[in-house]
């Protein structure tokens, strides 16, 4: 059975590792990476880099490579990828499973301001503070480019795309991050507002705890909508179990047709 993982996340890489360790004869695993990061952490198994050309191109790839299960393990903010995966899986008649890490939830002491988009987040900032810790990734900074007064500390894995706010310092770093490190970062740069997407997961969650301890407001960009009717699991272990179930269905031997005794010829 051939499994295609739409990856680029920690969960996708962990799923590929779990499947590589499974003693499942004939299980072929391919992870697809979008290619937006120059030095990605490549998972075990086969890896392809680049887009498919929309839902039609993905459906064609699924058919041409005889994929038996498609796992959408992309980032919660990957945009239209989830909808393309749902449409392609339906067109190619391939089962689809979504692996989505749970989102964050506020706890006592949090001062959260929710926003439906980066543009909404930018509109909230002038009333909240002047030294902004922006952790929304290297794309989408154009939404903040017109804010001339605040100072921004932008953290991303690779250099952000222009246009950027005029008063910007870039910090290139990759999680997971520690609580002690996030506390020191907020203190050293005198941050008074944190902006983040609701990415979920533990790797970047310490910044939320550090902001709560410091009493800082946090602008949280809500996740975009996801296609309905798609089975969703929250962890790589759950996803690996589901892959095993589908594999068992593929590997189950078909029942042979019952033998019928030959008819006797009448004399």
Give the overall shape.
Answer: elongated
Assembly state? single chain
Mean pLDDT: 90
Our Rg estimate from Cα atoms comes to 23 Å
Number of strands: 12
Largest beta-sheet characterization? 6 strands, parallel
N- to C-terminal distance: 53 Å
Fold and architecture overview:
With 267 residues, the chain is of the alpha/beta class. Helix content is 29%, strand content 22%. It is built from seven helices and twelve strands. The chain has helices spanning 10-21, 54-64, 81-92, 118-124, 179-188, 206-214, 236-251; strands at 2-6, 28-33, 46-49, 67-72, 96-99, 111-115, 131-135, 151-156, 168-172, 193-197, 217-221, 232-233. A six-stranded parallel beta sheet has the order 3-2-1-4-5-12, sandwiched between helices. A six-stranded parallel beta sheet has the order 6-11-10-7-8-9. Helix 1 (10-21) packs across helix 7 and helix 2 crosses helix 3 (81-92). Residues 255-262 have low confidence and may be disordered.
Core attributes:
single chain; about 270 residues; alpha/beta; six-stranded parallel sheet; 12 strands
What's the quick description here?
The chain has a six-stranded parallel sheet with strand order 3-2-1-4-5-12, with helices on both faces. It contains seven helices and twelve strands. It has helices spanning 10-21, 54-64, 81-92, 118-124, 179-188, 206-214, 236-251, and strands at 2-6, 28-33, 46-49, 67-72, 96-99, 111-115, 131-135, 151-156, 168-172, 193-197, 217-221, 232-233.
SSE diagram, text form:
Layout: E1 2-6, H1 10-21, E2 28-33, E3 46-49, H2 54-64, E4 67-72, H3 81-92, E5 96-99, E6 111-115, H4 118-124, E7 131-135, E8 151-156, E9 168-172, H5 179-188, E10 193-197, H6 206-214, E11 217-221, E12 232-233, H7 236-251
Parallel strand pairs: 1-2, 1-4, 2-3, 4-5, 5-12, 6-11, 7-8, 7-10, 8-9, 10-11
């Amino acid at each position: 059975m051939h499994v295609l993982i739409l990856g680029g996340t920690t969960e996708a890489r962990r799923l590929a590792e779990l499947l590589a360790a499974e003693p499942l004869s004939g299980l072929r695993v391919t992870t697809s990476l979008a290619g937006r990061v120059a030095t990605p952490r490549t998972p075990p198994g086969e890896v392809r880099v680049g887009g498919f050309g929309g839902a039609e191109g993905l459906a064609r790839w699924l058919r041409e490579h005889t994929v038996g299960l498609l796992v959408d393990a992309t980032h919660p903010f990957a945009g239209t990828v989830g909808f393309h995966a749902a449409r392609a899986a339906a067109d190619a008649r391939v089962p689809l499973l979504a692996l989505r890490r749970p989102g964050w939830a506020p706890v006592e002491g949090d001062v959260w301001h929710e926003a439906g988009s980066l543009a909404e987040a930018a509109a909230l900032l002038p009333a909240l503070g002047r030294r902004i810790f922006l952790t929304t990734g290297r794309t989408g900074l154009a939404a903040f480019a017109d804010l001339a007064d605040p100072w921004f500390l932008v953290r991303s894995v690779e250099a952000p795309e222009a246009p950027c706010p005029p008063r910007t310092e870039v910090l290139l770093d990759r999680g997971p991050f520690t609580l002690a490190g996030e506390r020191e970062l907020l203190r050293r740069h005198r941050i008074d507002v944190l902006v983040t997407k609701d990415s979920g997961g533990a790797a970047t969650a310490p910044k939320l705890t550090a902001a709560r301890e410091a009493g800082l407001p946090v602008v949280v960009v809500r996740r975009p909508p996801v296609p309905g009717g798609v089975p969703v699991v929250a962890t790589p272990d759950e996803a690996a179990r589901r892959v095993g179930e589908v594999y068992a269905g593929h590997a189950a031997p078909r029942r042979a047709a019952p033998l019928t005794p030959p008819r006797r010829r009448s004399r």
